[in-house]
Amino acid sequence: MSENTASRIITLASYPQAIVHIDCDAFFASCEQARDPRLKGRPVATGKERGIVSCASYEAKASGVERGMRLFEARERCPGIILLPSDYETYSLYSERLFAIIRRFTPDVEGYSIDEAFCDITGLRRIYRRSYSEIARMIKQRAQKELGITVSAGLSLSKTLAKLCSKHRKPDGFTAVPGYRLHEFLKGMPLERVCGFGDNTVQLLSKCGVRSVLDYVERPVDFAQKLLGKIGAELWRELRGEAVYALSTAPKERYLSISKSKTFMPASGARDFVKAQLVKNLESACIKLRRHGLAARTLAVYLRMSDFRHTGIEARFNRHSSATMDFTGVCAELFEAVFKPGLLYRASGVILSDIVPEGVDARTLFDDPIAIEKKAALSRVIDEVNHRFGKHTLHIAASSAAMGASNNHPRNDIAWRKQELLKGETFRRRLGIPLLK
Question: Are 334 and 313 in contact (CB under 8 A)?
């Protein structure tokens, strides 16, 4: 080993912590290909119901199709592309199965997103009688075999490094970097690949002479702290192999906000229809609040126009609540404030924030306790009925125009699984099994 190389070694340790990042490749499109083998090896994209590409298979990406691209652009770049409506229920089922597979190998699993997970396999070599690299490969191969999708995996000393490794050789890649090889892996690694470094941060670091991730970690920690603050120092330590960010293995219980949005096609300028879509989103957000035993105090609404511009407004209440009827009147007022006749809208959304556990704050002197309890009781009845017969079976009259809204617009296709129902299933209540086509 040359003197120059030895001087750049970050640590002589191998795996003081062994963290694996599992990342599914083109997840939504891969689920469609796994469900329908006829789609294997063909360019596939989901998002037909939104009018833009939500996820493109690697065959489609090879022709220049990208996420967020409009459908006509995707067809121009890839004339043979197969455009499908998104089937989020099926994707969620595949996600649950993925996490269940990982938990067979280790109990320490953090669901990072619907198609990503971190897991800690430290200390498991004795049980499996294999190296950490072999254990990580076992997890990857088992997920691919059982789900029929490709998965990329990264193994290293921290969450930030493991994620950097899993992105290194996508798709169907595997990269393992022990501590004593960090300097080799990080040399020449672009800064923008680090989860936590945005465009502005990369530009700032470049102006300070930092060209690669290795350049960054070779600077003193005071440099990272002064330039990027607490997060910069934490990432500096993570990239040097110190596990600063612990795995969050408990179910998510704390929410800073809850949002619900819906894209509808074609774009509409009809006041009642756009308002109905907004109110439906409000109902869904309140249902989620109550499901987690939470209450919110701030409501924000927004509308997205056909040219993708946004307009929105928010209001703050005098107390926290989870009852839908407490929000509907203000929601209608906010809608009237942002809706402009003559414009076409393609999406609406609501955001509930200032969230606390339900019942923590007291009512004010001017609140009507009987009216409050009536609204809460009504919400409980609605939840019970909808749990039994399907979401939105009981709904506010103002959202009726959005319930089951359909037309012959080519983008309004619904997912295959919602059309091919088994005996006893309904549009909103189906078996929790991803059916093959």
Answer: yes
The reply to whether the predicted model has a pTM over 0.85 is no
pLDDT band at 384 (very low <50, low <70, confident <90, very high): confident
DSSP string covering 159-211: HHHHHHHHTTT-SS-EEE--GGGHHHHHTT--GGGSTT--HHHHHHHHHTT--
Both 262 and 153 in a single domain?
A: no
Whether the link from the prior residue into 178 is cis, omega within 30° of 0, is no
Note whether 158 and 289 are same-domain residues. no
> Which listed residue (32, 59, 116, 242) is catalytic?
116
User: Residues 102-130: what's their mean pLDDT?
Assistant: 95
Q: Which domain holds residue 394?
A: 257-405
Residue 251 resides in a domain = no
So what's the pLDDT on residue 7? 53
CATH at residue 310? 3.30.1490.100
**116 catalytically annotated:** yes
**Given this model, what pLDDT does residue 206 score?**
93
